[in-house]
Amino acid sequence: MVLMHSGIGSEKHLNEVGIGCKINLPGVGENLQDHIIVCTSYQVNDPNLTYDRFLYHHPDGLTLAVKEWQDTKTGVMTSLPLAVMALTRIDKTIQDPAWEAAKAKQQSKKFIKL
Fold first, then answer.
1. Domain limits of the chain?
2. How far, in Å, CA of 37 to CA of 29, rounded?
3. pLDDT per residue over 68-103, tens digit each?
4. pTM for the complete prediction?
5. For the range 28-36, what are the long-range contacts, defined as Cβ-Cβ under 8 Å and sequence gap of 24 or more?
6. Which percentage of the chain shows pLDDT scores above 90?
7. CA Rg value for the chain
8. What angle do CA 87, 88, 91 make, to 5 degrees?
């Protein structure tokens, strides 16, 4: 997508969306998959409920954690900072009339088709 916004991609398609083509490279922007992600943050009173106690509640926690990972590839830095993650199909969702209504209300009218 960044390449296409920079003018690298299919000249025909870039012209359709009003982007000047610098390099005609038709394969760019093809076979993209979009993943919707929702990030939720929270604050807890007990620091023992999260990995924060290792990193932020010790004066050298982050430095020690990075060193442990560099030396042994173990420790807190080997864990994802996520508790739950899911990928869901949106093909049926985007067929919902509410989705179409939301798209119609968008102010920008020039989109790169994915």
1. 1-31
2. 20
3. 999 999 988 887 766 666 677 777 777 888 877 777
4. 0.36
5. 28/3, 28/4, 29/1, 29/3, 29/4, 29/112, 29/114, 32/1, 32/114, 34/90, 34/114, 35/87, 36/88, 36/90
6. 22
7. 22
8. 140
In percent, the amount of the chain with pLDDT more than 70 equals: 77
Query: CA-to-CA distance for 93 and 51, rounded, in angstroms?
Result: 35
8 Å CB contact between 60 and 43? no
Cα dist from 3 to 20, 26, 54, 96, whole Å: 12, 11, 39, 31
C-alpha distances (whole Å) from 30 to each of 10, 33, 35, 36, 102 are 9, 9, 15, 18, 25
C-beta of residue 36 within 8 angstroms of C-beta of residue 90: yes
Tell me which amino acid residue 29 is.
G
